[in-house]
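Write out this protein's structure.
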Amino acid sequence: MSIKNIIIPRLEIKNGNLIKGIRMDGLRVLSSNLTPIIKKYLKTSVKEIFIEDIVASLFNKKIDFKTIKKLSSIIDIPVSYAGGIKNIKDVNKLFKTGVDKIYINSALNKNFELINQCSAIYGSQSIGVLIQTKKIFDDWYIFFESGRIYSDIKLKDWIKKIQNSQAGEVIISSIMYDGMFNGPDYELLDIIKNINISIPVIYSGGIRNTQDVKRTLGKKVNSVAISHSLHFGKFN
């Protein structure tokens, strides 16, 4: 399999703009026109496009369905989405706008059963969980709302709960490595490997090049979501 088939471009959006932050903060606008950026990625052999509204949950905003529909209409490979999803109504509308798979994060802090409710309707292959995590002292904890809200939930406990649900996939993002372009978070990747997660895992955070991708896949990760190195043309 070509390594490009394992890479998922991660497009973080805010108000219709492509943005990129560092450690999920200090968001910088990269472009107000996502169409040429998406078309550039479509010319490669990537297997899907991941669109994440980085501020929808943080600012309790409504999902930007108009932008999602516009972007989905020009993408001829699977589209996955995360950001601001609060209920089944949101999920239904996202699928109607052309999204193929959704990942839920912050809403699960109050209503974890939403995963099972969505999977019962749309199938677990279309429903996943987005995890944002970082190490606090000697353990790893879950954060919500773009890494701003500390939850006191340990990563291993959260993953165990997800594996006992009807979630079909999980994205695990390293908060401290996001946008840093300094290589993957190998301590986190070792934890992922040791847990031996039973559903497909996508890793995100710090990946610079094909060597980083290969080493990440060796940690029992199925795919990688990349933003910084792709957007700035640094990936090689």
